[in-house]
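Exercise: predict the structure of this protein bound to iron/sulfur cluster.
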Amino acid sequence: MKESYSLVFNIKRYDPETRKSWFQEYRIEAGRILRFTDVLRKINKELDPTLSWNSSCEHAQCGSCSVVINGRPMLACELLVENAVEYFGTTTFRIEPITVAPALRDLVVDLEKAYDRVHRIRPFVINPSRNPNQGQEYRISPRVMERYLEATRCINCFCCATACISSHKGFIGPNAVIASLVRIMDPREDATEERLKLLYSNEGVYRCHTSMACSNVCPKNIDVAHFIGMVKDGDF
Ligand code: SF4
Ligand code: SF4
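Solution:
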């Protein structure tokens, strides 16, 4: 087992002042269990303090470190060097920002713009429903509860939306659909009709052509395309 690897990172840079973008090569030695966020930090420390990238929790829960690595949207905080070398079969990595929002600088994208898609579906209870079991908890069937819990594992990392070709052509995007479906499945919500209007509109689920790219890249292993299929079928 190798203890460290000589890596080549080809990173897409973007300078907002000159609006120029280019690929910059960094050669760096990295221990086998460093995560890609650790390697980016090492580059900042040892090679280039100007390289900008994003992360927050670094425990695969906030979705802020999503980048495209050798064409695949991934969480940089979750990817160990040795796993990356094995998965891609190379020590050379091309790293680009996710594509659902414009870059602000280097690997940092305008997440507010990306979140506009999620905010479009109003990811909160719009019309609180009347609880038919007055004085008791809201009831939800075990079958719906299972789906609900699965869908609420989404961290809005936008990896699925980046992988989805339709997301770049007017579709609100797979994670926005999931966020809406979460509220549809929620017995406390009484705005299903309003939600379906958007989900069945020109920006909605029929933009999806079931390529499964979203399910394939989801770092939480959510079968995103299956949820979109549920909306298409009206099976909540
Ligand atoms: S299955 Fe649908 S939502 Fe998922 S990536 Fe393909 S087109 Fe996009
Ligand atoms: S469904 Fe998966 S890939 Fe898409 S935003 Fe949620 S966690 Fe990320």
